[in-house]
Amino acid sequence: METEFEKNTWVINYSPENYNSHQFSLQDDIILSKGDKSITWVNTYGLEYMDEFRQMVLENNLDDFLLRLLLNQKMGNKVIELEEQLFVAARIVKTEHESLESEQMFFVVAKDFIWCIQEKRGDHFDWIRQRIFENKGIIRKKRADYLLFFILETLITNYKDKYEEIVLMENTLDAILNQEPTPQFMFEVEQKKSMINEFKKASLGLRDIIIKLERAEMKGFHNKYFSELREQINGLTNDIDSDIHELESQINLFFSIQGHRLNEVMKTLTIFSVIFIPLTFLAGIYGMNFENIPELRWPNGYFVLLGLMLVVTIVSIIIFKRKKWF
To answer: How far apart are CA 293 and CA 301, in angstroms?
Structure first.
């Protein structure tokens, strides 16, 4: 009976002359090294098959330490050199959906096979499989280290494409100038910052892996391929750092503009207040209910008071103008 491990595992075996792709069978495919010039690529979806993992390790005479490493499903990013294998752990961001999720990936790499274990189903490696099937380029003439190079390059390319799609800031400055500091706007800003930092964390993790692979000294493993990957991931991290700096600058500019607008409003209100304070004072005096206020009995007292108020207003405006308050 087919096990869950077999249902979630596929194998591709290829050489310069031909290839074979099918669902994995513990009975027929458990030996990864074929003893010829072919390369075996096994892809497993799921981290919970420890019994089958143990069987794979023992049947292929792999380092027992792999079992301990595979048990740690929250390892993060590591490269560990074993006797004749490399163990690579990568915490990557899945870019298939709008919301960003992370997953743990493990790679067991030898000179003639790669065993890839992914926490969740789905990947972006179909274009690599297509190159193998159609014999495009030189991938079928190279060893497993070249296949690992393609897999890591695909992860970097996916990061770049997704980053440009949902994170990269275009015309942000114009949008900020017309925004109001509402809770919704602040939430969107924090959400964008969180997404950028998520990409930065994942990119730095990949960069650490690539740097360690450049220094790997396993027999039959050529690390020259990974220099190009280091340049690619450095370019991405530089773009992310630049965007973080730009976003912070724009946020500071946004609050500066909002502060300037508030100051203008307060200045206008202050000018009106200063103008009307003496007028209110005069109106308050002549609004008192005392009998002995001589001006109340003047025939032109009302017009004199209005004239005085007008003079006070004009003088106040002239003073404000000279002080360049408006």
So the answer is: 11
Residue 219 confidence class, pLDDT cut points 50, 70, 90: confident
Q: Per-residue confidence at 98, pLDDT binned at 50, 70, 90? A: low
Domain spanning 264-322: which superfamily? Magnesium transport protein CorA, transmembrane region (1.20.58.340)
> What is the domain partition of the chain in residue ranges?
4-257, 264-322
Q: Which CATH number fits domain 4-257: 2.60.120.1440, 3.40.50.300, 3.30.460.20, 3.20.20.10?
A: 3.30.460.20
pLDDT at 254 exceeding the cut of 60? yes
Please tell me the distance from the alpha carbon of residue 50 to that of residue 44, in angstroms, as a whole number: 12
The pLDDT > 90 percentage for the chain reads 17
- Per-residue pLDDT reduced to its tens digit, 76-90: 888 998 878 889 999
* Domains 4-257 and 264-322 agree in fold: no
pLDDT above 60 for 161: yes
